[in-house]
Amino acid sequence: MRAAVVNGFGGPERVEIAEVPVPVPAAGQIRIRVHAAGVNPVDGAVRSGVFGGEGQRLGLGWDVAGEIDEVGPGVSGWEAGQRVVGLQYGPVKPLGTHAEYAVLDASAVAVAPASVDAAAAAALPLSGLTAARAVDLLGLAPGSSVLVTGAAGVVGGLAVQLAVRAGLKVTALAGAEDEGLVRSLGAAGFVPRGTAPAGPVDGVLDAAVLGEPALSFVRDGGVYVGLRPHAAPAAERGIRVEEQEVAPDGAHLARLVSLVDSGELTLRVADTVPLADAAGAHARLAAGGLRGRLVLTVA
Ligand SMILES: NC(=O)c1ccc[n+]([C@@H]2O[C@H](COP(=O)([O-])OP(=O)(O)OC[C@H]3O[C@@H](n4cnc5c(N)ncnc54)[C@H](OP(=O)(O)O)[C@@H]3O)[C@@H](O)[C@H]2O)c1
Q1: Which end of the chain is more exposed for a tag (fewer CB within 10 A), N or C?
Q2: Is the Cβ atom of 245 under 6 angstroms away from ligand 1?
Q3: Ligand 1 within 6 A of CB of 276
Q4: Angle at 203 between CA 197 and CA 206, to 5 degrees
Q5: How far is the CA of 56 from the centre of ligand 1 (A)?
Q6: Which regions of the chain carry the CATH code 3.90.180.10?
Q7: Which of 46, 155, 243 to mutate to test the pocket of ligand 1 (most atoms within 8 A of CB)?
Q8: Where does residue 10 rank: exposed (0-12), middle (13-18), buried (19+ CB within 10 A)?
Q9: How many C-beta atoms surround the C-beta of residue 117 within 10 A?
Q10: Can you give the pTM of this predicted structure?
């Protein structure tokens, strides 16, 4: 089968399409025939060597939407032919989801949303689980104020929707040209990129990874949730500082799928790109300015 891999660190040009053996599901795992797979910032980080793995062939891709092709020993409740979504965690792994087939732990998958196509479904797992857990980490009571930075991005946009759903008063920080977009996702307030909110907020969900400047927007005793593990700014003024690190969770993913199907969570796809041009997708992601997830499709 074909899979996107890197055999050395560097820019998007290091992404190759390799011919590799079809992976075999072990006990507790399922194999998915990949239909679509999101390209996330973490894929660029793996490619450029942020997580190490020098000298190894590294697979790319964490998000997947597709159809179960084979079920490993000891797996119950799943069968070939079911359409699923899943998160294959792993910064350093020989094969990822940017491939014709992917093997995942059965506990990491959920039945795919029925209301959207595979490309949109492939935008859900990593970003949806991240946004949902980040909103949970805020731990704020309904009516509290939260500022979401990077609100026009994929995680930020989902976080805006989930925070509104949790009853929070959401202000979005994004580029001026994105005000209409973030308001359409439910943000009541708007702060143009490069400026500060009018007053302190109860919490900041820092999807733009601004760090200290974003912490400075939080009131004394409030909460800051960072999305870059082990890199959050130091706590000050009694602010609780939390760090979100995504983990596979099929049950939680299933709850997010329900929100997609009930129309309460909107997924955004910037564009679809054939697997064969994975390197081109990396280049577009690295260039910035995308609105929605770039998704690889596998014919
Ligand atoms: N810890 C975890 O579990 C976890 C999981 C998933 C993602 N992440 C991280 O979360 C971040 C967001 O991911 P994503 O998939 O949502 O990426 P994305 O779709 O590219 O969104 C990032 C957004 O932030 C905006 N932005 C960048 N710099 C900004 C600034 N100075 N002020 C305001 N907005 C700014 C970007 O705008 P432009 O495109 O115009 O620059 C973009 O809209 C990434 O750093 C990613 O690595 C962490």
Answers
A1: C
A2: yes
A3: no
A4: 80
A5: 28
A6: 2-124+267-297
A7: 155
A8: exposed
A9: 17
A10: 0.98
Q: What are phi and psi of 186, to 5 degrees?
A: 120, 0
Q: How far is the CA of 67 from the centre of ligand 1 (A)?
A: 29
Q: In this predicted model, what pLDDT tens digit does every residue of 139-183 receive, in sequence order?
A: 999 999 999 999 999 999 999 999 999 999 999 999 999 999 999
Q: What is the residue with the minimal CA distance to atom 2 of ligand 1?
A: 245
How far is residue 74's CA from residue 205's CA, in Å, rounded to a whole number?
Answer: 39
Query: What number is the average pLDDT over the span 266-288?
Result: 98
- Asked whether the predicted pLDDT for residue 84 surpasses 90, the reply is yes
Q: Which residue's alpha carbon is at the smallest distance from atom 34 of ligand 1?
A: 150
Q: What percent of the chain has pLDDT over 70?
A: 100
CB 39 less than 6 A from any atom of ligand 1: no
Asked whether 244 lines ligand 1 (CB < 6 A), one says yes
Those residues whose C-beta lies under 8 Å from the C-beta of residue 116, and which sit 6 or more positions away, are 260, 267
Query: Which CATH number describes the domain made up of 2-124+267-297?
Result: 3.90.180.10
Ligand 1 contacts CB of residue 150 (under 6 A): yes
Separation of CA 297 and ligand 1 centre (Å): 22
Domain 127-243, CATH among 3.40.50.300, 3.30.365.10, 3.40.50.720, 3.40.50.2300: 3.40.50.720
In this predicted model, what pLDDT tens digit does every residue of 210-235 receive, in sequence order?
999 999 999 999 999 999 989 999 99
